[in-house]
Amino acid sequence: xxxxxxxxxxxxxxxxxxxxxxxxxxxxxxxxxxxxxxxxxxxxxxxxxxxxxxxxxxxxxxxxxxxxxxxxxxxxxxxxxxxx
Length: 84
Known about the structure:
Elements: H1 5-37, H2 46-77
Helix pairs in contact: 1-2
């Protein structure tokens, strides 16, 4: 079965959207962590844990963006055989 460029492009678009969503979540999570860490009632370990979660979100976002870009490259290289 040949690859369908339009289906691959749709997957790439979804991956880009997911990447953007994760990056936005990382930003919001970082902001929440910063505000919470200003409180004296937050345990000392909290900021490190939150920073790890933000970092994981950003890494996942970058991985999804890379996958989307590779799918887009593949899509541009794929040609469907003519139908008879």
